[in-house]
Amino acid sequence: MTTGLRLLFRLGIFVILIFGVISVWESLKTGKWFSLGETQDTQTTHAMVLEEVQALGKLELVRYNFKDIVEHEQIVQWFPNPKAVLIVQGEAIGCIDLTKITTSDVSAEADTVVVHLPEPELCSYKIDHSKSKVYNTEYAFTEQAKLVEAAYRQAEKQIQNSALEMGILEQTKKNANQILKPVLEKISGKKVVLRYRMKGTIPAPR
Questions:
Q1: Which one of 73, 145, 165, 172 has the largest count of C-beta atoms within 10 Å of its C-beta?
Q2: Can you give the pTM of this predicted structure?
């Protein structure tokens, strides 16, 4: 073997070693070296169908966040009462449905625009299950799932009641004046007066 060929051969071996060291180092950094027995590839299929398209015109103006410790107990005869204790986080959102505004709700004078808005709504209230958990259950046995589900329903109902009692609808009005009014004044170039025309609403029972 000539000197040139030997030099090329050694250079090739050196390059291979360098790439081998780099490959091992990258595997160590990413953890792949220790997970050779695990499946690295996954395959997921979907059958997504668009069922409905809705026009959204509800302007969300305030969100109340709640945290609650819920003790839910079912009264039974002859046996200890099944009980569930939950740590619940949830939210309620106040909004105004702008799709209900018509041309007759807007009147303009020389330097003033009067807009009659629909009354604010409690447009949604729900539990954040990703931040909620079952702390404890007692005497539930095979009915544990039903007991926990009933406890969550009561917790969600309490979020609705608490939001209304704490004045979320009035806060929605205040925020409309702080957020919506300046925008309308900038667009119209006139002073804007916001008024309301109906009683507040809450979502229909589920």
A1: 172
A2: 0.66
The answer to whether 182 touches 105, Cβ cutoff 8 Å, is: no
Nearest by Cα to 126 from 94, 89, 165 = 89
Extract the tokens encoding 172. 């929605």
Domain boundaries, the chain: 3-34, 58-196
Query: C-alpha distances in angstroms, 20 versus 9, 16, 31?
Result: 17, 6, 16
Tokens of 52: 């409905």
CA end-to-end distance (rounded Å), the chain: 86
How far, CA to CA in Å, does 166 sit from each of 67, 97, 154, 155, 194? 14, 21, 18, 16, 23
d(CA 126, CA 93): 9
**Six token digits for residue 195:** 């008024």
Burial 91-112 (b: 16+ CB within 10 A, else e): ebbbbbbeeebeeeeeeeeeee
Cβ within 8 Å of residue 136, ≥6 positions away: 83, 84, 85
Task: Give the separation between CA 20 and CA 11, rounded to whole angstroms.
Answer: 14
Beta-carbon-side half-sphere exposure of residue 147 (alpha carbons within 13 Å) = 24
Place of tokens 């917790």: 155
Q: How many alpha carbons lie under 13 Å from residue 18 in its C-beta half-sphere?
A: 6
